[in-house]
């Protein structure tokens, strides 16, 4: 009797099933990962706003009034508050001092690029808000 040879390898159907399973898993995992990255960048911006608020509170402790300069960009905010440095690069958020009087202030982080629509606010009385596009509304 002749010996039969067996072929090694995978059939086309088996390969297509594996490709289909991988594509299903990727279609679930990638949006979840992007959401996680977006939320983590927004949380880092929230920490930056808290750090900026601590600089305001420190100035208040020294002079019994908050700094009254408003800003519209991260660069001018950093120049006004020399002890503050954001942890993220400027491409993710634009930090500004929206309102500043001797007794009140409001700090804002506005999302840029892929984080557009994510706006975080922190006021002198520790009122914090975030738009839902940040992945959270309270912090």
From TrEMBL:
InterPro entries recorded: N_methyl_site, PilE-like, Pilin-like
The entry's keywords: Membrane, Transmembrane, Transmembrane helix
Superkingdom of origin organism: Bacteria
Transmembrane regions: 12-33
Keyword hit for Ribonucleoprotein: no
Gene Ontology terms: biological process: type IV pilus assembly
One Pfam family this sequence matches: N_methyl
UniProt KW Transferase keyword: no
NCBIfam families: IV_pilin_GFxxxE (TIGR02532)
The protein's name in its UniProt record: Prepilin-type N-terminal cleavage/methylation domain-containing protein
Organism: Chitinibacter fontanus
């Amino acid at each position: 009797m002749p010996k039969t040879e067996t072929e090694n390898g995978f059939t086309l159907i088996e390969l297509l099933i594996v490709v289909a399973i991988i594509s299903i898993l990727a279609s679930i995992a990638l949006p979840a990962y992007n959401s996680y990255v977006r939320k983590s960048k927004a949380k880092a911006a929230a920490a930056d706003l808290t750090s900026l608020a601590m600089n305001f509170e420190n100035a208040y402790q020294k002079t019994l009034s908050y700094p009254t300069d408003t800003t519209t960009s991260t660069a001018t905010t950093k120049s006004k508050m020399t002890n503050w440095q954001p942890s993220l690069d400027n491409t993710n958020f634009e930090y500004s001092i929206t309102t500043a009087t001797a007794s009140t202030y409001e700090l804002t982080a506005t999302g840029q690029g892929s984080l557009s629509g994510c706006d975080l606010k922190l006021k002198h009385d520790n009122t914090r808000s975030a738009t839902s596009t940040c992945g959270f509304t309270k912090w």
